[in-house]
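Data availability (excerpt). The following record was deposited with the supplementary files.
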Amino acid sequence: MIYPVFLYGSPVLRKIAKDIPEDFPGLDELINSLFETMYHSDGIGLAAPQIGMALRIFVTDASPLEEDDPSLKDFKKVFINPLILSYEGGIEKYNEGCLSIPDIREDVEREAAILIRYCDRDFNYREEFFEGIAARIIQHEYDHLEGRLFTDLISPLKKRLLKKKLTSISKGKVDVKYRVKHL
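Predicted structure:
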């Protein structure tokens, strides 16, 4: 099922998401819906809060970036109840965007590498090290589970310059090819 993407200003985007129990009803359906919604919206990652559910799950598929980084060829993953254990490698800047904040892209500083513990779609525990763009995508989606948005990581001056655009987005005044919801 393709869900609408909740826009900047929606309270669910600021909530700290709750853990998902192993016996969560409809987990496979939720995972499939996250992927469907992400693909329909031309995204490379999507977290449950972005479809209105304050749950600790996100999906990624960075294969569209394979040309820039061949290591992303098979980077299609489900992260359930993730916890970033460590940040490493120093700070790097990269231009980010977000389906919940359409038409805004800004340079964001993030750690170059992370160690993360999570459950996969079969609820097998995993602990993995990611670096580069994969680490950035994970940190961006993980932030959604913590009630943070990439605009929280830009300078106050840049945020002030974007205030009018952000206000318009929060009112649903966007021109995108995917369904959106604002509150």
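Summary of structural features: Residues 5-174 form a domain with the Peptide Deformylase fold (CATH 3.90.45.10).
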